[in-house]
Amino acid sequence: MACPTRRTKIRTVTVHLGDRSYHVRIGAGVLSKLGDMAGEVTDGRLAVVVADGTVADLYGRAATDSLTSAGFRAELLTFPAGERNKNLATFSSLMDELLSLEPPIDRSALIVALGGGVTGDIAGFVAATALRGLPWLQCPTTLLADVDASVGGKTAVDHPAGKNLIGAFYQPGGVLIDVEALRTLPVEELRGGLAECVKHGVIRDASLLDAIDSNVEPIFACDPEVMTDLVARNVAIKAAVVAEDEREAGARAHLNFGHTVGHGIEAASGFGTLSHGQAVSLGMVAESRVAVERGIFDRTDAARVERLLERLGLPVQLTGLDADEVWRIMQHDKKALGGRVRMVLPTGPGTVDLYDDVKYDEVAAALASLG
Amino acid sequence: MACPTRRTKIRTVTVHLGDRSYHVRIGAGVLSKLGDMAGEVTDGRLAVVVADGTVADLYGRAATDSLTSAGFRAELLTFPAGERNKNLATFSSLMDELLSLEPPIDRSALIVALGGGVTGDIAGFVAATALRGLPWLQCPTTLLADVDASVGGKTAVDHPAGKNLIGAFYQPGGVLIDVEALRTLPVEELRGGLAECVKHGVIRDASLLDAIDSNVEPIFACDPEVMTDLVARNVAIKAAVVAEDEREAGARAHLNFGHTVGHGIEAASGFGTLSHGQAVSLGMVAESRVAVERGIFDRTDAARVERLLERLGLPVQLTGLDADEVWRIMQHDKKALGGRVRMVLPTGPGTVDLYDDVKYDEVAAALASLG
User: What are the pLDDT digits (tens) for B349-369?
Assistant: First the structure.
């Protein structure tokens, strides 16, 4: 069924945010439409593609060719790949390059973030702050960025004190997701995206869990039709949540399911030991078990989620966790308020609620049960 | 009449920006109300005052005392005074200090920008980007910051390629203007603020020009009643313009009167040769003369503005300007679009309009007439 040159139809999901609304276009081979989309979001003639070195080698030329064909002057700025480079130093270098272009950029200059979450975050932060805000497009190239970072307008760089501590909410003018790019993605990164897809199913749509369960093989084969559908469904869920709550005051907190304990596990294990997706998988298992022990979530629903995570190659067990350390990190999460831990717990198939009365003992018991 | 300890009444001007609306409170001695205002904009208990060393020595204690009295834990972060320090390096140091506070800050932490335009710009940019946005208050201490930077939500740092090239639009939760702080301001800085007051009169309210003209002595004596009125009138004008047009698409461009040629003169003379206020004064004279030569502005109205600027000690003459260089800089202004110069020209007492057909010859003639 997989045939790299076949074009599936293009799916469009609209993110409704008043005068900051934008479209997400998803399909196989759609990177060739980048120039057209650029023309929809700026009257200018300059487009600056930002990518890490790896993605620039793979897709930089396709992006600039499409922009050039549409009449843009296209520039490509690169930075060294890796989350460790998502910092103010890289931000500053990219700014230096952007602000040294001749003729100097004006506010019609378009930024195109081409790559995974790191690129979207840092290029988006450049777009948010250069001349106090330039139009920008996101072209995510990883499943995680497709289904998560592509919607919501979160931009940021890391700081030694923590991840994403410096940034802005700044919506793109549009998002273009070429699912063909997933073919060059390491399987571990595909799994990281799938963890977020499972999360979306748990918080909003239990039938998405069935759809993933029925398509594990074509998903790992990156079948264009299946991936287009999968990404479109997930983008639609995230778009609905973000539209409800653009700046994280309420419903958007639901997207943190699995992430409160997950971040704690990720940091307590030492960043880099577990991938983000692996930590989120373990976080979802732990948080589901907290909900089960509270009697608000059915044990069979929790077991079903765990089985699906296992089928996808995501971890559901981990030994040697220091519960005190995980709890301490959770209390210092930037989404915590005054040291009070806030946790999203499943309450049924496709539904969750936010709890701010979760106790240390409950989390410690759930963590112990992972061993 | 001037009596430092007498309290004038507090004037309030509201900046109407939908759910980002806020109040500007103006009066003599109102810095003592900082703690109360802080309580109106955050539910948190941490307030971080950002000031340069000079202002921290003068008013840092008064600010933190007021915050502490209102139940806040108050921290004071300082940076070296001067526009040359309004850069990413200072921003990065302030971020390091802010993000190293223990216990770590959360999104309820309040930033207080205490000082002139540089402090408002850089502390505002810290507020805009720390944890993707913290609540913040502005306490301007210069007349220029009182009547200009305090309204509009512009935050930024400079870049070697130009001023204010990295920043964000980010509205404060409130502004507190203590006109007593003007007493410690060098007279040259007072004049810089007065240049903007004259600008407001030209673009929106000719009677403001009369009010300034009738109060030159009490203004330079920093009479609290007169300064409270002067600041309130100017804040109201700027607030009305910004409310019409938050992100500089239309009416807000009127605030650039005097600044298009002014920035060109400032840069062509070498930054630091002329103060910003002096450059804007010369820019207003030159732009008014362009309008007079076009036959859209009355020569006697233009002469009246020039006489007022002279009475205030602001320059209306300058020799040795390189018109080619000024024009080149104007074409590269970040508000220019595609190299096209856009200029605000007076069309009557208290009215202006935006023109994008101004030619080199007109500007060169106006610059020559300054000599």
Answer: 999 999 999 999 999 999 999
